[in-house]
Amino acid sequence: MRASLIQIAVEEGESVENRRVRVGALVREQAGADLVVLPELWTTGAFAYELFGTEAEPLEGPTYEAMAKAASDAGVWLHAGSIPERDPEGPLYNTSLVFSPSGELAAAYRKIHRFGFDKGEAVLMGAGSELVTVRLPETVIGLATCYDLRFPELFRGLVDAGAETLVLPAGWPERRRSHWTLLAQARAVENQSFVLACGTAGTHAGVPQAGHSIVVDPWGEVLAEAGAGEEILTVEFDPARVAVTRDQFPALKDRVLGLERPRRAG
């Protein structure tokens, strides 16, 4: 299976519409890939909080239309990263879109864990509540976004739902890049899954981005890693290795579920 992670540079001075056109062209250039992945909130920048409201769009808005056409033109499965989605009956959401090679929407995932604690995304956007997987011809992908990477229980849920390849778009800051690499490898090892994590380059509202998109195999080995700038990271991998790894080292069978909370002494 061939995957291309497009590590987009999001910089001030480029309009959202121009970036949509540019990214659509980059997706079309990946014809021949099985899966193309874009980063989180690449239309606005993950830390450009003031743009969330002004650039929010309905699910089937201009980014949806542009990426559906790009996926169809290239004939690829496209994880189109995420957009600030405006729900007409609710709050904003950080929503990922996955398109089939015919340009049909295969899935949408609203980010469950919002970053910012008491500011930014955490207060400007609503939280999703559903785990989402998508069956591709070669593998089942499980969807997560950026800050989700810090919460292993989400990925366990995706594995229980059949996920074999974990796909994660992000706008991860450079100052925590060591966590990005460490956690991507940890999620791969503990779930015996491939991890495809696609970040952004550039600077979002003064926050330098980590870049370093990464592909990790079920043993935690890094198959490919990008640099800091805009880059297309392409890698060939064999999804069948997930089943082989889980069979050779069946650690997932030893999970102990439903443990009681510890009682307080005294």
From TrEMBL:
InterPro entries assigned to the protein according to its UniProt record, in alphabetical order: C-N_Hydrolase (IPR003010), C-N_Hydrolase_sf (IPR036526), UPF0012_CS (IPR001110)
GO molecular function terms noted in the UniProt entry: hydrolase activity
Domain of life: Bacteria
Coiled-coil regions, chain positions: none
Signal peptide annotation: none
Keywords: Hydrolase
Keyword Thylakoid: no
Nucleotide-binding listed as a keyword: no
UniProt-listed SUPFAM superfamilies: Carbon-nitrogen hydrolase
CN hydrolase domain residues: 1-239
Annotated family: Belongs to the carbon-nitrogen hydrolase superfamily. NIT1/NIT2 family.
Matches recorded under PANTHER family: DEAMINATED GLUTATHIONE AMIDASE, NITRILASE-RELATED
Name of the protein in question: Carbon-nitrogen family hydrolase
Source organism (scientific name): Streptomyces hokutonensis
